[in-house]
Amino acid sequence: MTGIMYEERLDVTFVAGLNIEVAPGAARDVRVRVSGEIDLSNASALRRTLLIALAAHRGDLFLDLQRVSFCDCSALNALLAVRRTALQAGRRLHITAAGRPVERLLQLTGTRTLFA
């Protein structure tokens, strides 16, 4: 299994209309809840925070996107990049809840099953 190294501190992040809360889950998993809008201006902050969460925990990442009111392709690119990193480490990224904008993007791009 490949480890994930990341040098930043894990914390609650608020960037340009995006709130990201990270908390330990059951066993070694990590749970992340995101609210607000995810677009080109803050998708990199989402990716960075999710990578830090992966590095800080040894289990899967469970992502709640129920409170996301807008997301575009930059959000999807961030999620796919984090998913790839998780898979390389022998772990998974699960989307446990998604609001209408997220579900629509995942359905239109045929990527919903990648995050089950």
Task: Describe the protein.
The chain has 3 helices and 5 strands. α1 (43-56) runs parallel beside α2. The model is unreliable at 1-11 (pLDDT under 50). The protein has helices spanning 43-56, 73-88, 100-109; strands at 13-15, 18-24, 30-38, 61-71, 93-98. It is globular, with a radius of gyration of 13 Å. The chain is of the alpha/beta class and 116 residues long. 34% of the residues lie in helices and 31% in strands. The two termini are 21 Å apart.
Question: What is the topology?
Answer:
Blueprint: E1 13-15, E2 18-24, E3 30-38, H1 43-56, E4 61-71, H2 73-88, E5 93-98, H3 100-109
Parallel strand pairs: 3-4, 4-5
Antiparallel strand pairs: 1-2, 2-3
Helix pairs in contact: 1-2
| Quaternary state of the chains | single chain
- In the predicted model, the low-confidence regions spanning at least 5 consecutive residues are 1-11
Spatial shape: globular
The count of strands amounts to: 5
- H/E order of the elements? EEEHEHEH
Helix content: 25-40%
The side-by-side strand order for the widest beta sheet comes to 1-2-3-4-5
Note the gap between the termini.
Answer: 21 Å
Helix/strand class: alpha/beta
β-strand amount: 25-35%
Number of helices: 3
Computed Rg:
13 Å
